[in-house]
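lol so apparently i was supposed to do this last week
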Amino acid sequence: MRAAYLSAPINALLDGLYEGTATVADILREGDLGLGTFEDLDGEMVVLDGRAWQVDNHGQAREVDGTARTPFACVAPFHADTIDQVPTGTGIEDAVTGLIPSPNMLYAIRIQGVFEGLRVRSVPRQEAYTPLVEVAKQQATFDFPEAEGTLCGFWTPAFLHSVAVPGCHLHFLDAARERGGHLLSGRIRVASIALMHLPRLNMALPMTLDFLTADLGRDSQAELGVIEKEG
Ligand SMILES: [Zn+2]
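anyway here it is w/ zinc ion bound
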C-alpha cells in the first residue's frame, strides 16, 4: 500500500520512552526504506532495500536481524514517483524542499550519490526516561568531506510534528554499508533524488504501560528543532 508506517509517535520518544515496542521484522513487513532508532536509543536505524542497519555512537554501521527492537521507526514500501538531479553544491535539505510539490504531503526520500561536507550524528545508549532533548547534548557527530552512499528518510508536513520529525529527516548509509548516521547537514556533489508521495499514514500506538500513562500533550516543535536539526 502507498502509505508511511510509524511504529509509534515521536512524542513518546521525546518523553524518554525508549523501550522497544516493535521488532525490525515488524517494521520490514510495512516497508523497505526508512529510518528510526533502537531500544534504549541505542543508535540510529537505516532501512534500505528491505534490510536494516544500526549505526552506533562511533558512526559504525552493522546490519541487524529481525529480532532487534525499536521504540520509533518510520518506513514505506518505496517506489520512486520522480527521480531528479540538482546542481553540484546544492544543500541536501534545500534540494528536497525545492522538489516537493506541496509541503502538506508526506514523501519518502531516497538520495543516492556522492555528497560533500556531510555531517551526521549518532547517540549513545540511554537509560529510560532521559528526555531526548538531554540526550542530544551527548550526541557524537561525524564529518565526511566527501562520501558516497544513500540517504533514506521522509519529508513530513509541519502539522504532523507530534507524530514524526517535521520537514526533512534523513539517515545516511555509506556505499560500503560500514558508516552512517542521522543527517545534520551536507551538500550534493552528484546524486539522484527519488521521491515517493505518501497520501496515507499508518501509525501504531504502543500498548505499554509507559505509553498508556505518559503525558504526551507537550509541544514537541521547539524540542525537535534542537534535537534533529543542529550540529
Ligand atoms: Zn534521525
